[in-house]
C-alpha cells in the first residue's frame, strides 16, 4: 500500500512498502504544500527505494502558488503525485490553485476551508484519494491510501511509447520521457530511437564516420516489418545521407521530407516518426530553428474485466502549430487539412479512425460566433470521440475572444493548459471527449510544435446514444402541414434522416444487441387511418427489447387513433394519449410486454410541445450485458419559461417533485436505489447543491430537470459552484442553457465533464427529455482504510472500482460500465470491450434504392493474421486492412456506410437465426460462414447496373487434395467458428458462388493479397460477372508472394498509390496500379492483373466496367518536311507505324445503339517526299466530308464508322473540339480543351465521356 497521513511536521507519514520516508527516510517536510512526484525514469531516483522527487510551495506567497500551478499544468498525463500539508491551504482556495488540484483528481479542494491537515494521492488527468480535517480533533484520521499496484507508473508513460524532443535555436535536441529529461543519452549527428514494448533502443550515427552512412539503412532493414521508430538529427553537424539510405527512407518508411533536408544545406533539423514498411511517415518536419515534437503511443490503460480483448483500429494523428507562419495542419491516417486562422479542430471516430469533420474557428472578440461555434461543436461530441486541435495564426483580438466557457469546453476533451494559451504561443492537443481534464497530451510553447499520437483505445462506448428531433408546423396562410424529422446515433445523423420532411410518423427500429438500424419507416397518419393501423401491426411483430424511435412531421396526430393503444401498450408511452394537432412529438422506447416486462427494463424517453422538441436515450448494448446484470431505468423531462414543467421517473415510477419553479434533482443510490428528492431555487442554493453532490458516494446517479427556470448564477463564487457541481456529475452543456431554458441531465457523481447524457433547448417553450438504462453494482467495495473517518476522507472510486490508474485518454464512464460488463456466453473472450464496428452505427443500414439513385460502390475487406495454430502469423494484416479502409473513405472511393470489415481484431457481434422465431448472438469474424453471409446478405443484394462490388483479401491461399484424392482444391485459409484455428473449407469456387446471379453491367473487383490463388480465374470465368471483373493478384497465379524484408505489402502499396498527393490530376486506373507496383523496388514480388471484358484495365479504379463504352487512344505520326504531326484516333492499342500517346476519352462501341456514328476520313499528305506517303485523318458525325478547304479540290477518303459519340451534351458528357492547321492541305486534331497552342479551334465536333 501507499498512504499519507497528515499530522504535523515531525510525525506525518509517507508510507511505501511499510517504510515511512518522512524524516526517518530522509525527507524533511515544511509548512505549505509538500509535493512528491513519482519519477522512476529519472536517473537520480531510478535505483532508489523511494523514486520520488520533492518540492515545497509556500501557501503564504502568491508567487509560490503560481509556481505550483505552473508545475501541475506542465506535468504529463498519468503523472503520479502525492501532496501533504499540515499547516492548511489558502482559504478560500484561489481559482487557479483549485483548478490545479482538480487536474490531479481532487473533487473536494474547496471544502478544506480552515482545516489544517490535508493529503492526497493523485494522478494528472486521473482520479485521487484525498482526505482533510483537523488532526487535533480527529487524530490519525487524515489519511489517503491507495494500493501500490495501481499507483505504479502506467506503461503509457515509458520511453517505449512516449518521447518528446525539443530543439533549441542551435538545433541541439533534448530528449524527455514525460516529465524526465533523459540526459544520459549521448546524441550524435543522427539518432535512431526504436520503440518496443519493453526496453527501447537508441542507435547514434556520427557525421564524420563514413561507415555510419550505410549503417542506418542496415539497422532499419534488420527491424521487423511494422516496427515503429523515431529518427532525428542533432545540431549543425549535418549527417550526410547516402542515396541508398535516402531511397530506403522514402520508399520503405514513407519519408516525405528527407529529400528536402538532403538538398537544402541551410536546414540542420530533420525528424520523422514512422514504421518499417510504412507508405507514409506518421509525422515529419524539417527546420532551421527552434521547434519541438512529442510522440505518444497512447493506449487506454483503464481497468478492464475481460482477460483478452481485441483492438479497434489504430489511428495515426498529427497536429502541427506554427502561429508565426500562420499555419496549422492536422493529419489523420495521412489525410491532411491545413488551416490558416485561429483554431483548427478535427473530430475523429474512436473506433474506425474516420474523420467526422475538420473545422476552423477564428476566435476574436470582434466575432463572438466563432468561439460560440467551437464551444457548441465540442459539447455536441459524443462521449469517447477523439479530438485533434491546433492553433494557426490567431486574430489580434484572439485573447479577448478566448472565453472561460471555451476553456471549459477544451477541458471536456482533456485539456489542462487552455488557460495559458495566448496569441503568441503555439498550441496542439490530442484528446478525447469525456476524459478527465489533464488527461490529454498537449504542446504549448514559443517554438513551432508538432504533436503525434498513434491512438489505440482499449475501451469504446458500450452503448449507443439515440436522439430523435421533431419539428412539426402548420401554415395558416397556405393551410398546409410541414416540418422536419431527424435521428442521430452517437451524435451522428442517421443517413437520410437529417431534416427529413416525410409527413406523419417517422420510425427508426434499432437492434438492441448490435446497435444496427434495422428499418427506417414512414406512416402517414396525417391522411390515412390505415397507416396508423399498419404501425400498430408493426409494433406487434417486434421482439421485446427492440428499440423504437419516433419523430413526427406535420399533422401526424390527425389520423393516429388506431395506433394509440399499441404505442401505449408496447412502448409504454404516457404522452401519446394527449398528442394533439399541431404538436411535435418524439418517443424513444424499447418494445415491452405490458404485463411481463419488469419496470427496470422499460426504457422510455418522450416529449411533446408546440414547435421543436427532442429526446435522447443512452442504451447499453445487450451483447455486452448478460440478463443477470441488474440495472435501473431513468428519465428526466424539462420545459422552461412561464408554462414550464418537469418530470423525473425511476423504473417507471414518477417522482413527487411538485410544481415548484427551479432545479429539480433526484439522487439515486447506485446500490440500493434509494431516492432523495431536492429542489434548488435560489442563487445561494447553487452552493447547497454543490455541497450535497460532494457528500454523495461516488457512483450515485444524479437526475436534473429544470421547471420553468433554474437559479441565476449570480456572483463569481456562485458561477464557480454551478460549474463545479455540473462538472462533478459529468455535465457540460449547461454552458449553453439560459436560466429559463429547457434542460435535463442524467449524470453520475465523480464522472468527468462531457460524459453525462444531456438535452437542452435555449427556447424554454420547447420540451426536451433524456433517458437511460444504467447497470448497477450489487456489492459494496470499500476503498478506504477502516480507521478513516468517512466524513473526512473522500476516495474517488466509481462503482466500487479504483480508477487511480486511469491515464491518457481514459474515459471514466466506460470504466463504470465495464465493472458490470458481462458478455454473453456466445461471445466468450473474443469480443472487444465496447461497441466495435466497421462503420458508424448511424450509417450502418441499407438505405432503400430509389429509381433515381446513382451507382454505389460497396467494399468488403477481409484480413487474416492467423495468430494461433501452426503456421507463421501475418501480424500486419489487420493494420493493412484498416489503413486501406480509411484510404477508401477519406479519399472518396467508397462512402463510409458502404464498407464492411472482417478481421480477427475487429470482430463484431451479430444476431444469427437458428430455428424459426429464435436467434443466437455470435461473433462475426473472418470465418467461412461470416464471409459468405456478408457477401450473400449485405454485399450483393439490392444492386443496380453500374454498381461496383469490391472485395480485398489479405491472408493465405491453399491448394490441397480433398479427402486424400486426386482432385486439387484451392481457396482461402480462413478461421474456424471459434476464431482460433485455420479452416480450409472456403474454396475459391464457394467464395465466388454468391456472385452467380449478378448480370453484366456490375463491376466486381477483387484484390487477392495472398498466395496459392491457382483456380480463382477458372471459377470466375464461368460466372456471369466475368465480363465486368477485375482481379489484382499479389503474385503470378498460383505462386506464393514472399514479402522481402521491409518491403511494402501488396494491399498497402495499393493504399499508398490511391492516397498519393500527385494522383489528383488523373484518375488511378487498374493498369496504372499494376504498372506502378511492378516498376517499383518497394515491391519484390511480381503482381499481375486480369481484366475480363473489352478493356485492358485502363478505366479508373472502382469505376463501372461498362463494356458499352470503349477507350479511345491518340496516336501521332511525323510528317516529312514539317514539324507538325499527324493525329490518329483508335480504340486499339497495338497499331504499328505510329506513336501511341495514350488514352484520351471514352466513346460508345461501334455496334452500340447509343449516340451517333463517328466516321473516319483520310487524305494523302502533299507533297509526297522521297516517295513516302503519309496521311492526315479527320473524324466527323457527318457521313460525307467537304473537299479540302486549302486546295479547294482534294477530297477526303471515307473509311467507315469507327465508334459512336453524342451530337449534344448531357450528364457526364464532355465536348471534344476540332482543331486545324493549314499547310499544303488542312490537317486536323482533336482536344478536350478549347485552347491548343499553334492550332486553330473550329468548334465542338462531338461529345464523349471522360476517362
TrEMBL record:
GO cellular component, one term: Golgi membrane
Top-level taxon of the source organism: Eukaryota
GO molecular function terms noted in the UniProt entry: beta-1,3-galactosyl-O-glycosyl-glycoprotein beta-1,3-N-acetylglucosaminyltransferase activity
Pfam families, per database record: ILEI
Domain annotation ILEI/PANDER: ranges: 31-126, 341-435, 504-590, 661-749
Gene Ontology biological process terms, A to Z: protein O-linked glycosylation via N-acetyl-galactosamine
InterPro entries: ILEI/PANDER_dom, O-linked_mannose_GnT
Protein name: ILEI/PANDER domain-containing protein
Taxonomic lineage: Eukaryota, Amoebozoa, Evosea, Eumycetozoa, Dictyostelia
Amino acid at each position: 500500500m501507499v498512504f499519507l497521513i497528515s499530522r504535523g511536521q515531525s510525525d506525518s507519514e509517507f508510507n511505501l512498502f511499510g517504510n515511512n520516508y518522512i524524516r526517518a527516510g530522509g525527507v524533511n517536510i515544511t509548512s505549505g504544500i509538500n509535493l512528491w512526484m513519482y519519477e522512476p525514469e529519472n536517473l537520480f531516483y531510478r535505483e532508489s527505494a523511494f523514486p520520488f522527487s520533492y518540492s515545497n510551495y509556500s501557501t503564504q506567497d502568491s508567487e509560490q502558488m503560481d509556481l505550483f500551478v505552473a508545475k501541475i499544468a506542465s506535468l504529463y498525463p498519468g503523472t503520479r503525485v502525492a501532496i501533504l500539508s499540515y499547516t492548511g491551504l489558502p482559504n478560500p482556495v484561489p481559482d487557479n490553485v483549485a483548478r490545479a488540484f482538480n487536474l490531479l483528481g481532487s473533487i473536494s479542494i474547496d471544502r478544506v476551508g480552515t482545516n489544517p491537515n490535508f493529503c492526497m494521492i493523485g494522478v494528472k488527468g486521473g482520479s485521487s484519494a484525498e482526505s482533510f480535517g483537523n488532526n487535533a480533533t480527529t487524530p490519525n484520521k487524515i489519511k489517503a491510501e491507495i494500493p501500490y499496484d495501481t499507483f505504479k507508473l502506467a506503461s503509457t508513460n515509458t520511453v517505449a511509447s512516449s518521447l518528446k524532443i525539443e530543439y533549441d535555436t542551435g538545433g541541439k535536441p533534448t530528449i524527455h520521457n514525460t516529465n524526465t529529461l533523459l540526459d544520459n543519452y549521448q546524441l550524435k549527428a543522427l539518432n535512431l530511437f526504436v520503440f518496443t514494448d519493453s526496453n527501447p533502443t537508441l542507435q547514434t550515427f556520427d557525421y564524420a564516420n563514413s561507415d555510419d552512412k550505410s549503417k542506418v539503412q542496415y539497422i532499419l532493414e534488420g527491424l521487423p516489418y511494422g516496427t515503429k521508430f523515431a529518427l532525428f538529427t542533432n545540431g549543425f553537424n549535418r549527417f550526410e545521407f547516402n542515396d541508398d539510405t535516402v531511397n530506403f527512407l522514402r520508399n520503405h518508411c514513407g519519408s516525405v521530407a528527407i529529400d528536402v533536408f538532403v538538398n537544402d544545406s541551410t536546414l540542420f533539423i530533420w525528424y520523422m516518426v514512422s514504421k518499417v514498411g510504412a507508405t507514409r511517415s506518421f509525422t515529419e518536419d524539417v527546420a532551421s530553428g527552434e521547434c519541438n515534437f512529442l510522440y505518444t503511443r497512447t493506449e487506454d490503460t483503464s481497468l478492464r474485466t475481460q482477460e483478452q480483448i481485441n483492438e479497434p483500429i489504430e489511428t495515426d494523428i498529427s497536429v502541427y502549430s506554427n502561429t508565426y507562419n500562420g499555419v496549422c495542419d492536422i493529419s489523420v491516417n495521412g489525410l491532411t487539412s491545413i488551416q490558416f486562422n485561429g483554431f483548427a479542430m478535427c473530430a475523429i471516430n474512436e473506433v474506425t479512425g474516420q474523420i467526422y469533420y475538420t473545422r476552423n474557428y477564428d476566435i476574436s472578440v470582434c466575432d463572438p460566433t466563432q468561439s460560440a461555434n467551437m464551444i457548441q461543436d465540442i459539447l455536441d461530441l459524443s462521449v469517447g470521440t477523439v479530438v485533434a486541435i491546433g492553433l494557426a495564426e490567431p486574430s489580434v483580438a484572439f485573447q479577448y475572444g478566448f472565453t472561460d466557457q471555451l476553456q471549459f469546453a477544451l477541458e471536456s476533451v482533456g485539456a489542462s493548459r487552455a488557460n495559458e494559451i495566448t496569441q503568441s504561443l503555439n498550441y496542439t492537443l490530442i484528446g478525447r471527449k469525456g476524459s478527465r481534464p489533464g488527461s490529454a497530451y498537449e504542446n504549448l510553447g514559443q517554438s513551432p510544435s508538432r504533436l503525434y499520437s498513434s491512438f489505440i483505445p482499449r475501451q469504446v462506448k458500450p452503448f449507443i446514444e439515440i436522439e430523435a428531433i421533431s419539428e412539426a408546423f402548420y401554415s395558416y396562410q397556405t393551410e398546409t402541414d410541414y416540418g422536419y424529422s431527424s435521428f442521430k446515433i452517437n451524435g451522428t445523423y442517421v443517413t437520410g434522416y437529417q431534416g427529413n420532411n416525410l409527413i406523419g410518423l417517422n420510425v427508426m427500429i434499432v437492434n438492441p444487441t448490435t446497435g444496427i438500424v434495422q428499418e427506417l419507416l414512414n406512416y402517414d397518419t396525417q391522411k390515412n387511418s390505415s397507416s396508423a393501423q399498419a404501425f400498430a401491426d408493426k409494433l406487434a411483430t417486434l421482439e421485446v427489447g427492440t428499440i423504437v424511435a419516433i419523430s413526427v412531421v406535420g399533422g401526424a396526430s390527425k389520423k393516429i387513433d388506431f395506433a394509440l393503444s399499441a404505442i401505449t401498450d408496447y412502448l409504454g408511452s404516457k404522452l401519446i394519449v394527449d398528442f394533439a394537432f399541431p404538436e411535435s412529438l418524439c418517443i424513444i422506447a424499447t418494445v415491452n410486454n405490458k404485463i411481463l416486462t419488469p419496470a427496470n427494463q422499460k426504457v422510455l424517453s418522450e416529449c411533446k410541445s408546440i414547435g421543436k422538441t427532442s429526446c435522447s436515450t443512452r442504451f447499453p448494448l445487450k451483447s455486452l450485458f448478460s440478463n443477470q446484470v441488474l440495472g435501473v431505468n431513468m428519465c428526466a423531462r424539462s420545459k422552461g419559461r412561464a408554462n414550464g414543467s418537469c418530470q423525473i421517473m425511476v423504473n417507471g415510477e414518477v417522482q413527487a417533485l411538485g410544481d415548484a419553479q427551479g432545479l429539480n434533482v433526484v439522487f439515486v443510490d447506485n446500490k440500493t436505489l434509494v431516492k432523495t428528492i431536492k429542489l434548488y431555487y435560489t442563487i445561494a442554493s447553487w452552493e447547497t447543491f454543490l455541497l450535497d453532490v460532494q457528500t454523495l458516494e461516488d457512483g450515485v446517479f444524479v437526475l436534473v430537470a429544470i421547471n420553468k427556470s433554474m437559479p441565476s448564477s449570480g456572483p463569481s463564487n456562485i458561477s464557480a459552484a454551478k460549474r463545479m457541481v455540473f462538472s462533478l456529475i459529468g455535465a457540460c452543456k449547461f454552458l449553453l442553457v439560459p436560466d429559463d431554458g429547457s434542460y435535463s441531465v442524467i449524470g453520475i457523481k465523480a464522472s468527468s465533464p462531457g460524459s453525462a447524457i444531456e438535452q437542452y433547448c435555449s427556447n424554454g417553450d420547447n420540451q426536451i427529455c433524456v433517458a437511460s438504462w444504467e447497470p448497477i453494482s450489487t456489492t459494496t467495495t470499500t476503498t478506504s482504510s477502516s480507521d478513516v473517518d468517512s466524513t473526512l476522507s473522500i476516495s474517488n472510486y466509481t462503482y466500487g472500482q479504483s480508477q487511480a490508474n486511469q491515464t491518457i485518454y481514459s474515459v471514466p464512464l466506460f470504466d463504470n460500465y465495464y465493472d458490470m460488463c458481462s458478455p454473453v456466453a456466445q461471445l466468450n473472450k473474443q469480443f472487444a470491450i465496447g461497441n466495435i464496428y466497421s462503420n458508424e452505427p448511424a450509417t450502418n443500414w441499407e438505405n432503400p434504392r430509389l429509381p433515381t439513385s446513382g451507382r454505389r460502390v460497396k467494399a468488403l475487406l477481409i484480413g487474416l493474421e492467423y495468430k494461433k495454430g501452426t503456421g507463421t502469423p501475418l501480424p500486419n494484416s489487420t493494420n493493412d486492412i484498416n489503413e486501406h479502409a480509411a484510404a477508401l473513405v477519406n479519399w472518396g472511393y467508397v462512402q463510409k456506410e458502404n464498407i464492411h470489415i472482417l478481421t480477427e481484431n475487429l470482430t463484431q457481434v451479430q444476431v444469427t437465426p437458428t430455428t424459426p422465431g429464435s436467434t443466437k448472438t455470435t461473433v462475426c469474424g473472418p470465418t467461412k460462414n461470416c464471409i459468405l453471409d456478408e457477401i450473400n446478405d449485405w454485399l450483393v443484394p439490392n444492386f443496380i447496373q453500374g454498381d461496383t462490388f469490391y472485395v480485398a483479401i489479405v491472408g493465405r491461399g491453399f491448394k490441397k487434395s480433398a479427402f486424400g484424392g486426386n482432385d486439387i482444391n484451392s481457396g482461402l485459409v480462413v478461421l474456424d467458428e471459434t476464431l482460433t484455428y485455420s479452416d480450409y473449407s472456403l474454396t475459391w469456387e464457394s467464395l465466388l458462388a454468391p456472385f452467380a446471379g449478378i448480370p453484366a453491367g456490375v463491376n466486381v473487383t477483387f484484390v487477392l493479397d495472398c498466395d496459392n490463388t491457382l483456380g480463382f480465374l477458372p471459377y470466375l470465368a464461368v460466372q456471369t460477372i466475368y465480363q465486368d471483373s477485375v482481379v489484382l493478384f499479389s503474385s503470378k497465379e498460383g505462386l506464393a508472394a514472399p514479402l522481402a524484408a521491409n518491403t511494402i505489402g501488396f494491399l498497402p502499396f495499393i493504399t499508398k498509390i490511391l492516397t498519393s498527393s500527385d494522383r489528383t490530376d488523373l484518375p488511378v486506373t487498374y493498369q496504372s496500379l499494376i504498372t506502378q507496383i511492378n516498376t517499383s523496388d518497394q515491391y519484390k514480388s511480381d503482381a499481375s492483373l486480369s481484366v475480363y471484358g473489352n478493356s485492358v484495365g485502363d478505366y479508373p479504379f472502382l469505376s463501372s466496367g461498362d463494356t458499352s463504352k470503349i477507350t479511345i487512344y491518340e496516336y501521332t505520326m511525323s510528317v516529312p518536311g514539317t514539324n507538325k504531326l499527324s493525329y490518329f484516333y483508335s480504340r486499339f492499342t497495338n497499331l504499328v507505324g505510329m506513336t501511341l500517346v495514350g488514352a484520351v476519352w471514352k466513346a460508345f462501341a461501334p455496334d452500340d445503339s447509343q449516340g451517333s456514328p463517328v466516321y473516319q476520313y483520310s487524305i494523302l499528305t502533299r507533297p509526297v517526299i522521297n516517295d513516302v506517303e503519309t496521311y492526315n485523318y479527320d473524324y466527323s458525325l457527318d457521313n460525307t466530308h467537304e473537299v479540302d478547304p486549302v486546295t479547294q479540290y482534294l477530297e477526303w477518303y471515307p473509311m467507315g464508322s469507327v465508334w459512336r459519340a453524342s451530337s449534344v451534351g448531357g450528364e457526364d458528357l464532355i465536348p471534344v473540339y476540332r482543331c486545324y492547321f493549314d499547310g499544303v492541305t488542312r490537317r486536323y486534331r482533336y482536344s478536350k480543351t478549347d485552347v491548343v497552342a499553334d492550332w486553330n479551334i473550329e468548334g465542338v465536333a462531338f461529345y464523349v465521356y471522360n476517362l
